[in-house]
Amino acid sequence: MIEMVFITITLLSLLLFYLGTGKIKKALIISIFWLSSIGILSFYGYFENTAKTPPRFFIVLIGSIFFSIYVLKTLKAKKTNTTMILFLHSLRLPIEICLLQLYFQNQIPKLMTFLGYNFDIFMGISALIILLMYCRKPFHNNKILYFWNVIGIIFLSIIVLIAILSAPLPFQLFAFKQPNIALTKFPFVFLPAFIVPLIYTSHFLTLRKLKNTS
Questions:
Q1: Which end of the chain is more exposed for a tag (fewer CB within 10 A), N or C?
Q2: d(CA 132, CA 152)
Q3: Which domain of life is it from (predicted)?
Q4: Contact at 8 Å (CB) between 40 and 119?
Q5: 162 within 8 A of 118, measured Cβ to Cβ
Q6: How many CB atoms are closer than 10 A to CB 207?
């Protein structure tokens, strides 16, 4: 059940990112190619083998960085649809619920959930609040949006660092009793490989747009 929920979240992330960044087909094709490649490898358990040197999961980490940079350079900030991007950020709420379920299944450590040091759930909730404000009247407070996006990058960076240092990799520092093994499996590998890069990119595109319109 949780697997199907996460696949749905991933596909929604792809759709909302496409709609929220100007419907650039080039970025969409690259996104689908990257998502499919990681999906096929993870489906056959390729990243679950952490004993290899260097670890196979490095493909996900390095690939997601290059994917983010490429997409960020391809897209134009002025085409960013703030409403669609906020809908994308609101998916951080169900993602946190999925992470909680993975903790209960001993797939990730507690510190990766909102019961630990994952504050990203506040970004999902606040995104919905800002969306409700948009429904009533156009939201023009650029200072609030700017601050919100900066906080979002900080919160996301905290959990990304915790997730990496909790994984069974050579530089693991946390959660040795219950390490982060879920994100090496299908479909949860889509979180570090695809969803996180989209969220980072969305934040930076929005900040760039706000800077250009200020």
A1: N
A2: 18
A3: Bacteria
A4: no
A5: yes
A6: 18
Per the structure block, which two tokens stand in for 65? 């960085």
Domain ranges for the chain, please list them. 2-213
pLDDT of residue 139: 58
Q: What is the pLDDT of residue 140?
A: 61
Residue pointed to by tokens 């670890």: 55
Look up the pTM and report it. Answer: 0.94
* Sign of the C-alpha dihedral computed for residues 20, 23, 29 and 32 taken in this order: positive
For each successive 10 residues of the chain (214 residues), what is the average pLDDT?
A: 95 96 93 96 92 88 94 89 94 97 96 94 94 69 88 96 92 89 96 97 93 75
CA distance 111 to 61: 20
Query: What's the rounded Cα separation, in Å, for the pair 147 and 102?
Result: 31
pLDDT value for 141: 65
Query: Residue 22 region, left (φ>0) first, then alpha (ψ -120 to 50), else beta?
Result: left
54 preceded by a cis bond (ω within 30 of 0): yes
Enumerate residues 6+ apart whose C-beta is below 8 A from 80. 20, 21, 22, 202, 205, 206, 209
Distance CA 80, CA 71 (A): 13
CA–CA distance, 89 with 196 (Å, rounded to integer) = 10
Give the whole-angstrom CA distance, residue 134 versus residue 152. Answer: 19
List the structure tokens of 207. 């900040």
Neighbours of 76 (CB within 10 A): 13
